[in-house]
Structure formats: structure tokens, C-alpha cells
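Collaborator request, handled under Task 6.
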Amino acid sequence: MKLLPLGVGRIDMALWIVTEEEGTVDLPITSWLIDHPDGLVLFDTGMHPGLQHDVERLGRSTSFLTVDYHPGEEVSARLDGLGIRPADIDRVVISHLHFDHAGGCGQLPEARLVVNRAEWEAGQDQALIDGGVYHPIDYELGHEVEQVDDGHDVFGDGRLICVATPGHTAGHQALRVELESGPVVLTGDCIYFDRMLAEMRVPRFGFDADLQRESMRRLATMRDHGCRLLYGHDREQLDGLPDGGLA
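C-alpha cells returned to the collaborator:
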């Protein structure tokens, strides 16, 4: 399983994680490449490459968010650096449809998108679209979309299991990956970094804070039963991973 770094988002600390601290926090944006016997899979796709030149497509989000994102950091370029064509990707498991997780879908036109059913429905909600929560230009692109529920087994062999973790969004999902070294869970934005789980803090702008904390506790239970948690935006954790990824 290989980590693909896809730029950085910069946001006010007090908004991102409820605190009285001042200043900004840099959040690494990533995708994970998983080599399954039945096909190559990505977990999330990062940002749309258009944001390297113009952030106006983010609408209202530009009032509190900046991005540090340059040519060569988009998901297609990262794959090319590994000798992988976009057409080689069989499936993309999307944690949720926010711009920094689903923005690269257009670079993978032949992949099947695996999205939680509630999330796909939320992504069609015009009020949420008008409010800048979702940007259909990132994911309404003609892909085959597989809408799934909690416990969905991506290939039917127990190696990749979708875990419903709603709260950050209505249909957020994590992904449990069975590696030779043991199981890991890619938490997405259910848990951004370790401190968030330790203090049970959630951002001010999520779908349902209580529901997110319930999902966080579910992931903590999985951790306590032997699953390693890989957080959605934890720079310290990501910097500590081996360059070659996890096996």
C-alpha cells in the first residue's frame, strides 16, 4: 500500500479543530494506492488540478482555506511516477465527496467509484451544493458509481472492507485494508490526526458532531482490537511512514 502526497491545505486552527488556539494548520492531502490481486485501487483522489492555478472553483471555502498545490502533485502525476496509467486503476474508494478527497476523480475516467450510499445522495443535495459543501464538477463525470453500505467487501475476499463512519459528512466511510503485516484502517476525515481522537474534538463545520464522535469511538475500538489507524491529515504520522509504503 503506497502513500501518494497530493498537496497541502491550510486552514485556521480554531475552525478545523475546536480550540482557542490561534494560527493555521497545514493538512497534507493524500491518496493511498492499494495493489489487490484483482485490481489496483485508490482510496481518495485529492484535489482537482485546476486548483493549482485558480481556487475560485472552491467558492465560499476560499474565505478560510488556502492550498499549497503544484503541477506534478496531482494524482495522475503521482501514478505516472510509479509507472501506472490512470486506466490501470480499477476502483476508487471515496471516503467522502469533499473537494480534497474527490477532486481528482476526473483524472481517472475509467475507474469505478465506490461511494457510501448516503454520501452519494448528500452529494446531490442542491442546498449543500449551493453552500459550497459539495462540488459536483469533481464527481459527476460519467463514472460507473457503486453505491455501498457499511461492511461492503470491495472484492469479496475480506481484504478491503468499507466501514461506515458518518458524522463529518452524512455518508463518510473509512476503509479497512488487510495487509501481510496486519490490518490497517484508512480513517479519512473521520479522524484527521491523533490529537483529535485523543481529545475527541471535531471541527465546527461537520454534518453531525455527535455522530462523528460515535464513529471515532468505533474506529478506536477497531484499533484496540489490533487495527492500525492511518489518519486523514496527520503530517507527523505520515512523515513517520516508510517511503515505500506499507506491506
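The cover message to the collaborator said: "The mean pLDDT is 92. The two ends are 6 Å apart (CA to CA). Please let us know whether this matches your experimental observations."
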